[in-house]
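User: quick one, fold this
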Amino acid sequence: GAGAGAGAGAGAELDEVTRKLFAHVDANIDTYVARLTEAVAIRGVSAVPELRPEVVRTVEWARTWLEKLGASVELRDLGTQTLPDGSTLPLPPCIFATLGNDASKPTLFLYGHLDVQPAEPEGWNTDPWVVTNIDGVLYGRGTTDDKGPVLGWLWVVEAYQKLGLELPVNLKICFEGMEESGSLGLAEAIDAEIAK
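Assistant:
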């Protein structure tokens, strides 16, 4: 099928780094889809108290990948949520990570969320927890909002590393697990981080 380089306009000149990155992505597309499939299978629905441990599992999954890529990773406790019945439930931790600290490079901030909306089977033509390829389009809960984009950033970093290329920026990263439920606790965590 059409690879990552297929989107370049007719006659567009790509620099050598971009060509190498596109070729790497094309050569590893099956790996990326397999990893996305693994992430989508984690039913991290933040709005369902019984599935909150799955959100934590997703955060831990992302943490492991960030650490494999050499990032300095901190899981930040966000406190608890009081439910309508008065009971409390721990909020999943958010990830604060740093990759690179070269003062001569710009720093890019990446934000993403790892939780997803509920996925009732009657609203889907396929199993929402299994990535399904239909005519080159991948379907599954979180493939576009927001697990897929978050993972895309990780795989770009990995591609640079595997190709022996220096990342042109430092990265500051915040990945949370409560965006689909109002980002509870995140503002306070960010304020505390800024105050450091």
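User: anything notable?
Assistant: The mean pLDDT is 93.
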